[in-house]
Design goal:
Elements (H helix, E strand, L loop, with lengths): L11 H28 L4 H18 L10 E7 L3 H19 L4 E6 L3 H7 L6 E3 L1 H4 L6 E5 L3 E6 L1 H7 L4 H13 L1 H4 L2 H8 L34 H7 L6 E4 L17 H14 L4 E4 L13 E2 L6 H10 L2 E5 L2 H8 L5 E4 L5 H4 L5 E3 L26 H4 L3 H12 L3
Parallel strand pairs: 1-2, 1-4, 2-3, 6-7, 6-9, 7-8, 9-10, 10-11
Antiparallel strand pairs: 4-5
Helix pairs in contact: 1-2, 3-13, 10-12, 11-16
Length: 406
């Protein structure tokens, strides 16, 4: 594939060549997905049998050119957690504004948690699917995104005829993928690309714009609505000012990961807050996995629906958490400041300017994605030195400076 693809000036032979490469990429993805699925479900002999069958199925799996249709069907597959979802949906709003307004199109979103997707997807999206269902669909343009968008498939002839404006992002994403393929194929090395393109030490919220097509700003343009906001606060008894606090890593297998501030630090900090600000109630939030602090006035962990959680997060005076999905949610809601503890992840990349972003230089390494088990074990073989070194007294003084102004 040439380093630079300018479809507009290409002859039909070159376009056919690129189309074949896109077809082969889609076919390879299908076979790889099947292999990953079979590996965990079957014996080696059964895997061989199923893979042999999948090779034949893959020949007819590729999206076929359908009868003439007017709607441009676009599929966007998003991978990762809540934070990734919100950042990538924000990118999609920029994509829609530049390329899809005033055009006949439909957008299908794929994500591992369809229920969560439905609560955050912008109104211009048409359908929602889990990843398994999504990979069985045929689209005129298919993009996969976690850190940065990649063109998984494109019907170039159709786009030329019906949506030529989409050739620009297809062109750019294919060019970048070709140039940085080795890095993008490995999650640890992917960060080396997304963190430094289009600029050195690129903020996480800007990383989906790896091709420099948009000017993504810190304030999200993703519209995150809340149903029955006032009713929810009344039902949960949140009529007076409150602080939210969370200590967990979402719906993962990790309960005590490297991103978590130590429990004893949480308890000390919350005791200091309760003593100094007795009028502020402390509300513990999250999905309910792991140990609770025991310092909350109300424990809502695992007890709220997503719409209720959005209302709780938006209206808190302050949110206290490690870097993660709820911090990104509060930012997307324009809910106000959070106190965020940074250890393996870097505040230089992940921090929002409205927050109290806490870290130390006790450990010189920001090890997120540097090794496979980075969320579970310290790369230096220590016990969360980066997090333990953020003392609760220091966190309290930083928080106090904010609370005293509210």
């Amino acid at each position: 594939m040439p380093a630079l693809l300018i479809f507009k000036n290409m002859d039909s032979g070159k376009i056919k060549e690129i189309q074949k490469q896109l077809d082969a990429k889609k076919q390879t993805e299908y076979i790889r997905d099947r292999a990953e699925s079979y590996f965990f479900r079957y014996t080696p002999a059964q895997v061989f049998t199923h893979m042999f069958s999948s090779l034949f199925k893959s020949l007819s799996f590729l999206p076929k050119r359908r009868p003439v249709h007017k709607t441009t069907n676009i599929g966007i597959l998003i991978e990762g957690g809540m934070g990734d979802l919100l950042i990538d949906l924000n990118w999609l709003c920029y994509f829609h504004k530049k390329y899809l307004e005033n055009n006949d199109f439909s957008i299908t979103l794929g994500f591992n948690n369809v229920k969560m997707l439905e609560h955050f997807a912008p109104p211009f999206c048409s359908a929602f699917m889990d990843k398994k269902s999504f990979t069985k669909q045929a689209f005129d343009l298919e993009i996969k995104i976690i850190k940065c968008p990649q063109t998984e498939y494109a019907d170039l002839r159709f786009l030329q005829e019906r949506a030529p404006q989409l050739l620009e992002p297809v062109n750019k994403y294919l060019e970048i993928e070709q140039k940085y393929k080795t890095f993008l194929d490995m999650s640890a090395l992917m960060d080396a690309v997304t963190n430094n393109i289009p600029e050195a030490r690129c903020k996480r919220y800007r990383q989906p714009d790896i091709a420099g097509l948009f000017d993504i700003q810190e304030r999200f343009i993703l519209p995150v609505s809340i149903k029955n906001e006032k009713e929810t606060l009344k039902k949960l008894g949140l009529s007076q000012p409150y602080i939210t606090v969370a200590r967990e890593v979402g719906f993962t297998t990790v309960l005590e990961g490297t991103k978590l501030w130590p429990m004893e630090h949480y308890r000390k900090l919350l005791s200091l807050i309760k003593k100094t600000y007795p009028e502020l109630r402390i509300i513990e939030t999250g999905c309910g996995r792991g140990e609770r602090t025991g310092k909350a006035d109300i424990d809502l962990t695992g007890k709220t629906e997503l719409e209720e959680l959005k209302a709780v997060m938006k209206n808190s005076v302050l949110h206290i958490d490690s870097e993660g999905g709820l911090v990104h949610l509060r930012h997307a809601l324009n809910g106000g400041p959070s106190c965020v503890f940074f250890g393996p992840t870097s505040p230089e990349l992940y921090a929002y300017s409205e927050n109290i972003n806490l870290s130390t230089e006790e450990c010189p390494i920001r090890c997120d994605f540097c090794h496979k088990e980075w969320t579970k074990t310290c790369i230096l073989g220590k016990d969360r030195t980066c997090m333990k070194s953020i003392k609760p007294e220091y966190a309290f003084e930083r928080i106090k400076a904010v609370l005293d102004q509210i």
